[in-house]
């Protein structure tokens, strides 16, 4: 019997819930199965910034009551500092990327570099109770990456938000990221190796064995030349930052990055810095699929760039629509979009929002097409020297629950979209207690099918500190996608960041089964 078969059999016999559910998991449980909370989850937060004028806030949260019946265990949830691989000759913690004649050697240098242990191993943002956020801040330019796990009552829906404000310099802006779960493959449409961009992919290994990672860049003509992204070793409990421009000799404005862990697993996120547009995190896009939704385009966006790729063997023809508060519309001059297999396509969507917030919906032009696609948006607010960019990748729908941590008294906007006509979405949004006090408040919203809705979310009564938002579709709701924008102006710069809110996969379906140990010996 195969190892996979043994694992499946053990799960059936013991009834142990897995940590993550697959994409596309149905809303309804198959007959005889039951939905149980996960018993353990893992998160990884990349090193925040090397700026001397940056300040980072970490906010951890686990929904209250999410793990009812999870063996009655209180559990733990905490992050701990990780080591950093510093490339040879790099005095900036791995962020001093090679240029000129040394291009193409950065990943190899990182893999062969020195591992620097964290100065402090104390836990960060450990949770004491569910339903109440915990915050911590740092202004250290060498703040490390964080790795951690949650179990018991804290495991289902455990969320950590990392928000960094950089007041000046090339990396200025508001950088936000919901810390990622480890996996073996990631797609990042929207990266760049152009001279005016510095994009780093941060690879973090949460486990006690090394991981081996391959990085592949796709430009408008296909895979970019260069083998520098192969066989990158990520030591246990360590992060490796890789400057993408060192992977190729061809500067490329619009590219897609594929991260594959051939051994082990990693967390991955891209920190993008633009000389004119500031900086932000680009989180991984949802797994490639025939249809994708990119929620949360702000109403005052001054430019929107779509970057898309068909990673499979087939080309893809897509219908492009914007879900607005009044319905689905087709952007002028972009009725359809043709994606060639393995080639990155970028389109500037001029005057897209026209003063109305919206979400982009990409569906096959031919309803029978199953060609998978992946996509992301680069969104800009402001004008002239006071511009700021953020990224919106394709995201998974909210099936049971999604969470956005680090909301303040002002500055949060919640975007909801029901992309399918005739399938209205009804969701309950709950504002948690504040980190320093306050009473939770819930409000229900209905989004008409084919429309989007932007709202100022509810706030806890008597709020002190920061709070979290949970989004839960009501029974019978149509499909719904969500994103949260944080806006915190820096002088005349409309600094902002957008986090997509995919389902938190806090529960899994476990099939009903009787004990039959003969399965293990057949």
Give a quick set of tags describing it.
about 525 residues; mainly beta; Hypothetical Protein Tm1070, Chain: A; 3 domains; six-stranded mixed sheet; five-stranded antiparallel sheet; 2 helices; about 5% helix; globular
Shape descriptor: globular
Going by CATH, the architecture of the largest domain would be Sandwich
Give the end-to-end Cα distance, rounded to a whole number of Å.
7 Å
What is the CATH level 1 assignment of the largest domain?
Answer: Mainly Beta
Task: Work out the oligomeric state of the chains in this entry.
Answer: single chain
Region (Disordered): 66-118, 430-462
Keywords: Signal
Protein name: Secreted protein
Pfam family, one: DUF5719
Task: Please characterize this protein's 3D structure.
This protein is mainly β. The chain folds into 3 domains: 39-82 and 118-179; 84-117 and 181-284, Hypothetical Protein Tm1070, Chain: A (Sandwich); 292-498, Hypothetical Protein Tm1070, Chain: A. Helix content is 3%, strand content 45%. The chain is built from 2 helices and 39 strands. The strands form 10 sheets. Strands 6-5-16-12-18-19 form a 6-stranded mixed sheet. A hairpin with a 3-residue loop joins β18 (267-274) and β19. The chain is globular. The N and C termini lie close together (7 Å).
